[in-house]
Amino acid sequence: MSLDYPGLLAALHVESELLTHRLQDLPFEYWGRATPAEGWSIQDQVSHLAFFDDATKLALTAPDHFAQMAAKLIDGGMDFPDRIAEQHRILAPEALMSWFSAARQELLTLFANTDPKRRVPWFGPDMSVASSATARLMETWAHGHDIYEALGVEHPATPGLRSIAHLGVSTFAFSHRLNGLDVPSEPVGVQLHSPEGLTWTWGPQDTANTVVGAAQDFVLTVTQRKHWTETGLTVKGAVATGWMEIAQAFAGAASKRKPKVQQR
Known about the structure:
Blueprint: H1 5-24, H2 42-61, H3 63-75, H4 80-87, H5 93-112, E1 119-120, E2 127-128, H6 129-151, H7 161-170, H8 172-178, E3 189-193, E4 199-202, E5 210-214, H9 215-222, E6 234-236, H10 238-246
Parallel strand pairs: 3-5
Antiparallel strand pairs: 1-2, 3-4, 5-6
Helix pairs in contact: 1-5, 1-6, 2-3, 2-4, 2-5, 2-6, 7-9
């Protein structure tokens, strides 16, 4: 998949605008509503996005200061996202929205004026600026999805799905290493269908290990919003199945999405 950096930033803008619009007039009592992420409210999801937008800006503009900040957070334990959420629960919804809106707009402007191939540090391996923008798109989609579910509304289909799916495929080796596993040498073919009816493919399609299905189902899996068995994905082969069990498109500690217990 060739890089379309302006298109990537446009997709991030669309995803940001949709979420901001949904949150703009949200009644006060809804901000404390629980989301599918255990222990996290809508307020926690938004403060998470705002904090890591600011962290991304720091990585882009002052990488040494970012490295110090990241090391301090990690030294306190890999549960730092939960600690960050708890620290910001004192904020009123208006202040939180003001923070998120400003942080996101500043970050979009910064991305637009930075070489997409430049390397920047992060909490995991360092990455290109384009990958950093893709990560912010993925995070916005995933945490936005939690918010939409909490509100009982449909998550609108957006142009960013392909970039997030590409990130999910690209983190195949990362997901294995993060879990202390050898990276399989066998290829996995991925074939996804977009909401518009397009077909997107990665890797060989005539291999024993394949993942086939809707792009949204794949993205829900690699962002660990659903276990792959709870989606419409068709997964064949031991390597493909093992990957879907640990797929993780985001930095941080290794985690796995467990399938929901079936009620008898």
